[in-house]
Amino acid sequence: MKKIVRSVCPYDCPDTCGLLVHVADGRAVKVEGDPDHPFTRGTLCPKMAHYERTVHSERRIITPLRRIGSKGSGKFAPISWEEAFERITANWNGIIAQYGAEAILPYSYAGTMGIVQRNAGHPFFYSLGASRLERTICSPAKGYGWNAVMGQTMAPHTNEIHNSDLIILWGIHALATNIHSMHDINIAKKQGAKVWLIDTYETPTAKIADRMIIVRPGTDGALALGMMHVIARENLADRDFIGQHVQGYEELVTTVLPKYSPEIVSEITGIAVGTIEEIARQYATAGAPFIRMGSGLSRYSNGAMNVRTITCLPGVVGAWGKPGGGLLTGTSTDAAFATNMVTHEEFQEQPTRSINMNKLGQALNEVLDPPIKSLYVYNSNPAAIAPDQNLVLQGLVREDLFTVVHERFITDTAKYADIVLPATTSLEHSDMYRSYGNYVMQRAYPAILPVGQAKSNWEVFSLLADAMGINKPFFKQSPDDLIDAILAKPSSWLVSTQLETLQEGRPLELSLPDGYKTQFRTPSGKIEILNPQEDDILPNYTKPHGDNAEFWLVNSPDMRLLNSSFNERPDLTKNNKMFLQMNPDDAGKMGLKDDQLVIASNERGEVIFTLRISAKIPPGIVVTEGIWWLEHAPGNRSVNTLTSQRLTDKGNGSTFYDVKVNVRASQ
Ligand SMILES: Nc1nc2c(c(=O)[nH]1)N[C@H]1C(S)=C(S)[C@@H](COP(=O)(O)OP(=O)(O)OC[C@H]3O[C@@H](n4cnc5c(=O)[nH]c(N)nc54)[C@H](O)[C@@H]3O)O[C@H]1N2
Ligand SMILES: Nc1nc2c(c(=O)[nH]1)N[C@H]1C(S)=C(S)[C@@H](COP(=O)(O)OP(=O)(O)OC[C@H]3O[C@@H](n4cnc5c(=O)[nH]c(N)nc54)[C@H](O)[C@@H]3O)O[C@H]1N2
Ligand code: SF4
Ligand SMILES: [Mo]
């Protein structure tokens, strides 16, 4: 029997595409982009064009497993679900009796973005009284920087781009991470818009840009101040808009901007004085300049300040007042319905400690009271994606750590598990999705039955609640019951006529209030260049941290992967080498040759890469793309051996790109 089922891409990607899944005899055989989805518009990225190969991969875990080799060896034997639950509860009950439930740490992030399956562990671990995980690995510094200037102001609709005449892609590798924005950018380009890209090297996204500015890592805040210096000096600011809508411009002009002449900013950023002046003038005189800001520049010790500073720019030139003008870091649809109906924080009876997910390595190796005696991992692959890999692996190998991993594949993390549980893919379970890059939301029903004995996160936590004696009726619901309950209490943003669209599993675009672009939801009601709540009431330039080593290590997304997901796909990863890209002059000075093995190292460890010499990389920087499973790593260590657990200036975020390394030939 054949059918076509609507579904949603579950991955941690701002596009949150609508899918049409072709099912034949109970198997997904083909996946297409939904032409009716307003952002997807019928196309998919290379990863999801063959999602059926992930769903029906030979590498899927199809039964629960018990470890029979040493930790990390990946040797397992199948067991029943009953035995898996017996082993987990026996271990946990023993740990709780001796150390208390805080000795158990959940670790999860964004394997799936659906609100039920992503958050399913929260009510369970709150009820258990386990340690909390501070989930700040992605972009809290970006959120912080935006909020410091714009408060809760609504982000612009992506269609604004159509009417822009100057689009700046700032720290975003849009071809890899936001590919459907190309539809919008192309509409603008056809009408004559120019595209500028600001990045640390010439990424593949440079192909679609008219101009490229290469900035020294972590110095974008200085560039923004330099642009504002030129705008003020040349009287290009929008005085009317500022008078009506901006707080603190005069103070910025008199106390901060004098320190950031183009000459000084050129020293900091490595950008020519003339280029700083040119982009400032073009930005200020454009009819409707639009900035699409990525997370790259926020993953530094000065990340929140970088974002805060750039976020001031559209206010200074009045871009918010013009159709097609503005700045997009990401959208928030939190207000559409109550996620708390899934997470239920109040199930936690007593305060428990919180462990920052960026510091897993430290937490597993430090003497803590109580120590972490059990780790439960779902929706995440910390052995690959968390910083300071050596320390993370040193923790995972501990014989006294009882590790459970609920996964679709034997990832680098699953190899260290005592018990592995098989997880469903998004085609096998129900969920509701909302996006962080647009305003479309969609409910999805299962397209096929679970593969093998796989169970969804929700199902596993319901069963674990029962096995651990947590007798709340909440856990007896199905995911669809829960989604129905959430939709029965929608916010005014979701009106009842629209709910039918959601119930039918069709994409629904939330409408934005008239005039939202100039409704500034800050305490003052204005754009707060001066924010009296901040330690530094005005934005300023602060330096990134770096390390005591020679090259900045930029580690960007790879088009074929999504974080460490899709490593299971030979069609995407075949013949891959973990490349380290380097400028020809740097390679020449060091006598290094193309395609030879090199070692990148710093105080945290060493990683072996294959050298790729490329003029697209500026001197002083090396670049690696993608988070590869260790099976692709010639030295059995991957990029996060080199990254640091240090946190951002605000938001406790990750600082993945604020890292330096030395490079030498591998013998
Ligand atoms: N194909 C693919 N898509 C993805 C992902 C993936 O791994 N692969 N990951 C997903 C996730 S979880 C997220 S959070 C988003 C993130 O996607 P984006 O918001 O695009 O952010 P990043 O991918 O972190 O970084 C984008 C760019 O920032 C650049 N960069 C680094 N440092 C600086 C700097 O100091 N200044 C400037 N101007 N640029 C800098 C990097 O070179 C990179 O090209 O993408 C999602 N989509
Ligand atoms: N060096 C470096 N490191 C980085 C980054 C970087 O740019 N550079 N980016 C960082 C960022 S922005 C992020 S967001 C993090 C992301 O880190 P993670 O969220 O851990 O992302 P993934 O590596 O995709 O791992 C998700 C895992 O969840 C599993 N999964 C998928 N669906 C389900 C499900 O329904 N149930 C269960 N139980 N499991 C499921 C997948 O098989 C996959 O192995 O990585 C960070 N790490
Ligand atoms: S990974 Fe992103 S671009 Fe690709 S299908 Fe999913 S949501 Fe769309
Ligand atoms: Mo992320």
UniProtKB/TrEMBL annotation:
Query: Which keywords, in A-to-Z order, does the entry hold?
Result: Iron, Iron-sulfur, Metal-binding, Molybdenum, Oxidoreductase
The record's GO molecular-function terms, alphabetically, read: formate dehydrogenase (NAD+) activity
Q: Which domain of life is it from?
A: Bacteria
EC numbers on record: 1.17.1.9
- Every copy of the 4Fe-4S Mo/W bis-MGD-type domain together lies at 2-59
Q: Does the keyword Ribonucleoprotein apply?
A: no
Question: Which SMART domains does the protein's record reference?
Answer: Molybdop_Fe4S4
Q: Which family does it belong to?
A: Belongs to the prokaryotic molybdopterin-containing oxidoreductase family.
What name is this protein filed under?
Formate dehydrogenase H
Source species of the chain: Sporomusa silvacetica DSM 10669
